Amino acid sequence: MSLQEICQWINDTGPATALRESELAFPIVESIHVLAIALMAGTVSIVDLRLLGIVLKKEPVSQVADQVLPLTWAGFALMTISGVMLSAAEAAKLYTNPVYRIKLVLLVLAGLNPLIFHSTIYKSVSAWGEWPRPPARARLAAICSLTLWSAIIVAGRAIAYYH
Amino acid sequence: MRDSTSAFAVIEMVHLLGLAMLGGVVLIVDLRLLGVILPTRPADRIARDLAPFLKGSLVVMVLSGIPLVSGEVMKCYYNGAFRLKMLLFVLALTFYFGVHKRVTRSAFISGWAPRVVAGVSLGLWLSVGVAGRAIGFL
Questions:
Q1: Which domain holds residue B36?
Q2: Structural domain for A70, as ranges
Q3: Which residues of B touch A58 (CB under 8 A)?
Q4: Is B13 part of the contact surface with chain A (CB cutoff 8 Å)?
Q5: Of A154, A39, A28, A40, which Cα lies nearest the Cα of B134?
Q6: Is B83 exposed, middle or buried (0-12, 13-18, 19+ CB in 10 A)?
Q7: Which pLDDT score is estimated for B66?
Q8: Which of A49, A57, A63 is the closest to B38 by Cβ?
Q9: ipTM of predicted assembly, 2 dp
Q10: Structurally, how many domains does chain B consist of?
Q11: The pTM is what?
């Protein structure tokens, strides 16, 4: 079975068809998806701006991260669940959409960024967490995160314009 | 504007990026006022620190919102969700500059007042967002 056939099969399953053809459920899931992205990208950008030394300079990085990132994860979970539902409903169409592919690659990169960040420079946060302007490697991770999430929002919106 | 798909799309993207920023700032400030996050850090300082980003994202949203509307003025005029959104937006703005800012600026932030203000603020901004998304579906 090729990937295209798998997408077609997902597209034709009962739940995917029901969601695609629903006049109420589809817009609701789509609205949840948009709000979840705002929740996730909005909260993570606060942490990124703290890492860049732009906002909340007097609050320790570890406290901002510990307190704000659970919200980011909640947004991420909502975004993923609603995103998988929307993807399944339109699987056949999305298979050929170049922007959708770009978005998936961007999502993988956006996921790798915090993995690298937390397993490297963030390990020594107790040493620099109180600095108004964190070390260059932390600032780099913040710039990557801001860039990637902005690009994901842009790509997500662009999907609808490619048929 | 209405005829140019790419210009409409680009401005819509800017509008969405502004939404993410605004949503993030509102959430952090209001959840702090509710005592849910960063309870040991001063709420007035957090609110003051993030205020430029709240106002900045508002400016981005209004500046990108105007061309989006002007391309479809007549469609929007008859759109119930659009009318509701504008009403909620004016309410949210009035509430922020009239009440919210005063509460977070006062030196003494405690008791039930900041919690009520934060709850109302979250409710208003969330409704603006939901009504905004609904415009496209009506």
A1: 3-134
A2: 3-161
A3: 41, 45, 49
A4: yes
A5: A28
A6: middle
A7: 94
A8: A63
A9: 0.87
A10: 1
A11: 0.91
